[in-house]
Protein 1
Amino acid sequence: MVTAGAVLRAIDRSAYDVLPIGITADGRWALTADDPERMAIADRALPSVEQLAESDTGSVLLPFEPHNREVVYSEPGSVPKVLGEVDVVFPMLHGPYGEDGTLQGLLDLAGVPYVGSGVLASAVGMDKEYMKRVFTSFGLPVGPYTVVRPREWEQDEKAARKRIVDFAADHGWPVFVKPARAGSSFGITKVDDLAGLDEAIAEARRHDPKIIVESLLRGREIECGVLEFEDGPRASLPAEIPAYHGPRLLRLRGEVHRLGRGPGARPADRGADPRGPGAGGARLRRGLLRGPGPRGLLPAGQRRVRHQRDQHDARLHAHLHVPAHVGGQRSRLPRAGRPPHQGRPAPPDRPALTRPPQPARDAGP
């Protein structure tokens, strides 16, 4: 809801008629109040769809007939009414069922254009293992990691745990234990030694039965955004994300991210790379642009890819934060993408950011 509020505040109301629709915890699509202020964090509590829904029972129905884009509102005991035709859907959902390809597939079936990445890109971007595999296939280096799948826990939990211990022995402590498919903030634990491993595994598996374990990369965190336009992808200037310090690193980051109060980014020091001024930033931008392109991983929308610059060999390691939608709460990309003398720009407003309806495909024999 915080993300949706940010978009509602920024969108040009003279150009767009907005129909806010939220999805409740029990799966009901509800018509919500068009009130960005009520979508903000208040008293350290996140807003909910239930709080903003205009009815406790009414539901919004998407069209599922060819060439029909009428959205219908249905209330028990009342005649359904047409709310109007939808030109484009702007998904502002985070996590499973929102940016993992599920919603994107539903909109493809409905034939409704939407903003952001498609089904494949969203699904791959949500899975940290396969995101790393795709990065690697395009020549982007990634840090050491190992994955333990649900079946491995079920078949031999001791062997699965030993593989993590052996990984830490090979690459050194600390390691980061994460759910493989739960976004960038939930269930992540920095583990300094064996004593904290079991608790970290349990926390990660609470969010996803598949977990990923990564080694620590000592360096600077650099963020670079990529937007897909009609004439091809464009990369923003790299921006450095200030590091958090202290023993509760991951918990603090998760809390700050959850409350939407994280610090901003500053332009990355382009002279920090020993290969010469601008070399690091230029290589990062070229690396992302030569990666998944118009017909590759992310055919439309926005990529936000973080890299760690290793202090020892000055290599750039691809890190994972690839949202399926444009926007994001407290996104730093608008600031990284603007010239230094300009203020915060309006949200991207180009047809190329909209994923068109997918062409019909033969079912086959």
Protein 2
Amino acid sequence: MKVALLRSPARSLVVSLLCVSVVACAPEEEEEIKRTPVILGSGTVSAAGGDVTLTEGELKGTTVIVPAGAVDGDVEITIGTIVGIGMKGAEPVSHTIYLGPEGQQFKKPVTLVLPYQTGSVSQAAQSGVSVLKRSEATGKVVDLGADKVAVDAVTGVVRTEVTSFSSFEAAIVPRIYGAFTLTDPDMWNGGDEILIIKPDNTYFNWSPENGDPEPPAELGSFTWAGGKMTDFRHTQNGRGGFDNDQNTGPYGGSVAVTPTIDALKFPGFSFNRVMDMSNPIAGAWELEGAGLNHQLVFLSGGKYFMWCNDQVDGCDSGASEGAHEFGTYNYVDDILSIDSVSPDIDAGFSPGVTATAVFSDEYATLTLDGEYVFRRIR
């Protein structure tokens, strides 16, 4: 995959409520089972943008902000309430909001402002607040990620960006998943340790110890329970990492982990989470279908890291345990520009090239030059 790339004022609408409160407008039990939304207010935005806000009732302050160019013409936006999303393990801290038209797509991300129940969220727990999205058409639930949510404890609201409409809910979601570095996440220079943890409890760890120009990466799995990672089993043995550094497993030890919005805290050290709310490309990605065998991390400071092994077509790393590549990138207006410093991977980026970058709904996938699809790890 040596990619040839790879680089008028808005209107403000104050909405009159159709009902005075969520309780007064609550649907019948049978309607809740059918997940029928109760519409509380509406307003129209245009190609010039606009915002729609509920000004009364228990959902007072719920706001949708649409930037100019997000839609081609007038769109009537409705705001309502609906039965809770009910994601296992998540602790809701807001009402469940329904936004219509259901499935409405936007050319640019729109901002969603959700009031949350401030008394149920301690200062420490604020870092775990995320926004869940449920498709009422398919029933699929997506965790938008705590790193994409801003919590304002003074006004009691959370803010996030969405690219389509459905049902949304602010919730505290325990998380240890994503991309992390052992030092400054904005200044990776080929010397930091890279850790990627996936929601299926598999992990990738790359550590440049002892000056080895091509250190082996560790790939494996673990069990997450009671705030600890345990029962480590590796499919590829690397240097350092979590296992016993032997070619057999499992490793019987365990390690306590404290996840926060910007770090994974282990006893004695922390891995910094790769995150940047203003940069949708920042974070960890894997080549679709390749799993742990092909990793790509865009750091928020303009650095990138890529790794693959010979199980990936075209990798041809020349190393039995894989090879890495790193360099700098710039992402502006859907164009990704790459300058690879250590182009070790045939399946990597060519130096000084550009590519078109297209994201799917809620930035779940990234397609480069219409050909190479990477799936976000979050």
